[in-house]
Amino acid sequence: MRRQALIALLSYWRRNWLQFFTLLAGLALATALWSGVQAINAEARASYDAAAATLGEGQYTQITANNGLPIAVEDYVALRRVGWLVSPVVEGRLDGVRLIGVEPLTAPQGIGTTALSIEAELPSEPTLWVSSGVSVDGVTTVETPELAPNTAIGDIGLVSDLLGAQGISRLLVLSDQPVRQPPLESVVQGLNVQTPQGGSDIGRLTDSFHLNLTAFGFLSFVVGIFIVNGAVGLAFEQRRPLVRTLRALGVPLRTVIAIMAAEMAVLSLLGGVIGVVIGYFIAAALLPDVAATLQGLYGADVGGTLAIRPVWWLSGLGIALLGGMAASASALWKLSRMPLLAGAQPRAWSMQAGRGRVIQTIAGLFMLAAAGIFALIADGLVTGFALLGTLLLGAALLLPMVLNAALALGQRLAKGPVWEWFWADTRQQLPGLSLALAALLLAMAANIGVSTMVSSFRQTFVGFLDQRLAAELYVTARDEEDAVALEQFLAGKVESVLPIEQIDVEANGLPAELYGPIDDRTYRDNWRFLSQVPQMWDIVQAGEGVAINEQLSYRGDLQLGDMLELPGITLPVVGIYGDYGNPIGQVIIGREVFKELYPDSQALRYGVRVLPEDVAALTDQLVSEYGLPEANVINQAGIKAYSLDIFERTFTVTGALNWLTLGVAGFAILMSLLTLSGMRIPQLAPLWALGLTRGRLERLEILRTVMLTAWTFVFALPLGLALAWVLLAVVNVAAFGWRLPMFVFPTSYVFLLVQALIAAGAAALWPALKLGRTPTSHLLKVFANER
Amino acid sequence: MLKIRDLQKSYVSAGQTVQVLKGVSLDLAGAETLALTGESGSGKSTLLHLAAGLDVVDAGDVFVGETNVGKLNEAGRAHLRRDVVGVIFQQFNLIPSLTVEANIAFHARLAGKYDADWCKRLADRIGLTEQLGKYPEQLSGGQQQRVAIARTLAAKPALVLADEPTGNLDEETAAQVIALMLELVSETGAALLMVTHSSALAAMLDRRLHLRAGQVA
Ligand SMILES: Nc1ncnc2c1ncn2[C@@H]1O[C@H](COP(=O)(O)OP(=O)(O)OP(=O)(O)O)[C@@H](O)[C@H]1O
Ligand SMILES: [Mg+2]
Hints:
By secondary structure, chain A is α+β, with helices and mostly antiparallel strands. In chain A, 63% of the residues lie in helices and 12% in strands. Chain A contains 23 helices and 19 strands.
């Protein structure tokens, strides 16, 4: 009996291969989207670790010699022996090319590019990995486009030989150090530890990029779940008459359910495998951009190739199985509760859904209420993501109710019998379409949310970069004596030198960094303020006011005009600026006041303004003529250009993912429509018999889908903006401690609407054409045969 | 009202051509009622579909009033169904997403001949005044067919075509429904062509025509 039931249930697919295909494709696409984003995410994370360990500027804690000379190999050995996990780097210039030598065995994981791991396998022929267009005499070079410009990387021995270097330029301190470790001075003398500076602001922004992707992964997961759920639900719906027949023939319900559950598990796994493969290709197609993004940031290769990680396979298959089983669980539950004699008519189904709809609405409202509570109490990542989850789920659950209300309104306003029928009939279609529409809702909301977030982020950050990285070079002196000499060296050679002097103080009892910049065009032209009084810089430089960062204004509850008490002086706040990479409060006072308060202070760091074309020459001079270690000269113009590039690439990636998600939602609609089209004929045949042409019905069918999409968009817009708000104001604050201002981009939303309408119209086209081509004999059969 | 001359229709199924109607002719005057009988497969439904413009004529002529149905294109045939004829089938006549009341008014409104009083009277005559807010699936088969009849007559068609309208009903109910239909048809002055298997029902109509193997017997 079990065998016969199985054969009967499976025979359904043979007759409905198209539906079989759509179910499988639905599972596969959902899995693909999930595992694709996961793949990118995992790879980006791995890349991030590699990038964090890069040889680039200021990303890594380093040890250098106080006198700027090389570190002796014995000192390195001594440090390693007592447990300091450090890795040597030799660095220098040869014919203008920056040569970097690393020690593959001790270098931080992922450091020095994939190139060096390749090297380990190569014969001992000396090889350098170089950026495009670089060549070094007498050495085999391998072009590695991912490298920062004008750079060559190789084994430390080879580079030392090429440079004729004695000793080690600097030591990288690995991020994981043993707990018990003798202090540096007790092991070797004349060395100092430099914690990363300057560039760390940008590091935080990269974290934000990851968060962005994580959020996207989360959203596509939700979209995926809905699609799988929809596909499976519809497949079950269609087999209800068959189940009825089997039960009438005496097959126990339990047996039917067991067979269908097993069938779903097999299908899910199959769809999952296909999905993971597709996801791999999606990720592989997008990854070069992600890799380039991170590479651009750090000037180091982070590997543009995709490794196949078992985690993706497992998570991809897991998600397919989970989604498939969850979807079939609810479908089977419905099936088990359906009275045996309830027909296959969709109306019976929607009546059944009537009771379910009340429960669904209550659940949706409950979710939104929970989201409201989370929004009030959210103070961490967990509550932030809980807020995201409840918000999205609540909205998705409420969608049918909202659409139903909108359609009822349309029905009331409709003129003429055809339009009345159109609205009423659309309402009747809702239960069958609501899962696909929920997927569309989430896809559009994710699209709006993520693109608003990325755009806001970019808008803010471009301004911030202009402000913070205005100076072309960022130079650090080794000590105070060196600083004085450096100032003299630079004087006259450059447009202006901006000493960066910082004193840790208490401002209104809160810890803060106090800065006293000179009065320079750089600040007046580039700094942007969240709020400020007129002539702010004049007031600050005259010693009659202070500017503070956003963090301090939040923490100290300070607005414009409030008094700020500093050691020895109290001044009103005249400007508040955004400070997006920094957890600490900052105060800016006029140069003269600063010098009066701290006459002995001496700057060690300088922003240097030079013409862009002179940057390279000056860098060379500072290193070779003046003798400053390479690491002490940072080319900020380069960092800025890379950083700006990042956002373009971030846009490309999120844009592509947005499109994919939307495409999958469109596919879900197509699938639902195709599945429903079978039951449509008995519903449409009477209208045809009453004198509506098939062409007219066809056009109405397309219009229906397009209209539902438009309504869903109306609902998706506020949801997407809420999503963006949560990402910017809750998740970002929880993750990084600062809040991004939110900008709204109406034209891009209109563009999305157009895209969605096109996608929906395209999805509706095929089922509608199929309907329009239905032979009249098919339509006539409705009236004669017992169906 | 309905004039059919030498009507032929064949279907191709499984590669074989089946000649269903082999030159059928009949005449039906205005306000006349005609029962069409014949064994299963004799072509009754086919003939009715052709008269209603639901299917396309192979050869011969079908005149509904002055209109030659065979010469109409799809839009023209839709027009005919909407404005001139009313069709009642054995089942699935009603639009599931509309209430009984909206169903009754639907055809009349579509044809632009809506008359609220007439619709109300029809609802009263079919005894479903209490059920107007319900949906078709909440009605019994007999009730559904009465709604279908009311809907057709609400549009006051010149020709009513009914294909075993009571085929799913028990004898007693069937007789009641047909009696009601005949009453209402004669009130509107429409002509009626009804396909039926039942001699008893056929006897209630003015005339009777028997089809055998695609020809008038
Ligand atoms: N679309 C079609 N394609 C192929 N054959 C058809 C089609 N429609 C009808 N037929 C065939 O035409 C013949 C007449 O069918 P029709 O439905 O007119 O018979 P009927 O007299 O109405 O029978 P019943 O009393 O069973 O309703 C049958 O043999 C049927 O199989
Ligand atoms: Mg028939």
